[in-house]
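Late entry, written up from scratch paper. The run itself happened at the end of the previous shift, but nothing got recorded in the book at the time, so transcribing now.
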Amino acid sequence: MSDTVTTIRSRLRALAPAILCAAAAILAACYDDGMEELMELENYYSRTPPLAVPEGYPVPGNGGVITVADVTPTSVRLEWQRATDDATPQGYLKYRVYYATEPISTAAAAMKAGTPFNGWTADLTGIDVTGLYGGSNASVIVVSTTYYFNVLVSDGDMHISNYIMVAVTPSTATRYVYLFAEGTARRGNLSTTSDARGDIDSLCRSSETFKALGTGNVRGFISVSSDDSIGTMPVNFGVPQSWTVRSPGGRIIASSWSALFDDLSYTLEALNVVDDFWWSGSLADGSYDAAGNCSGWADGTGGSDGAVGAHHRTTMQWLHWGRHNCNTERHVLCLSW
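Output as recorded:
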């Protein structure tokens, strides 16, 4: 009997290292799986810190994520999902965007150190941080400066929650062609000399919008002859054909020069380019309208007509709506890059 026990003990001693190694391997595997999961959670929360929303306060949509939908040298497009609240209907929750050159990660920090860009606005899900060419927001964006943005949401009881702050650094690395209104509605006698192109370009060069853009080139967006039409501007003046065409506030008008001669996605009025008809002197394909140029843009009387583009159309009527009498005051559009 004693020999049997001795034998069993000897065999157990021999097997012990293998048993311990197997147990250790099992524990290590479990430990590795658990640690991997914990590390994934830690990495997730380090990338997107969860919002701590007090009870009774609005809960930002999509976890408080703010999407930077577009950045230009002069504007930033921010978008977010609507918040919810226990007491205030979703459509009545109000939003306000704050910006600063230092972090504003909480509502308290935003209201203390940040500057409000807009007033409290109900049911807002996006905003263009523009207004850079006059008005109270004329100096909002400086190129190559990092800006911090946050969105605050308020319910009917003035409980205010914040979204997750985003940082944006506008850059001049991306180049655009800008289309804008010169600023003054004028009759068809845009030129006082024999050089209609030079006179109209001079109007654009004197525009406050052009001065604010800081771009180097500017031309009147108008056809003045068969050899000098809107359609021939890239050949005549070197307008970059691959650059995006945008409004002064950074809104996309067309993805390229050629896309200008297709239907637009939004009207020029909606894009804050111009709010009334404008002298184009062009047909719908951008060529010169020989019967609609106010006698070479020298006649401001009722004796001739000028082709106009429409501010309220997305079809090619935006470029050629028809012809108006030259004693009618219409805007002049300018192109700058």
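The first helix runs from residue 2 to 47.
(Scratch paper discarded after transcription.)
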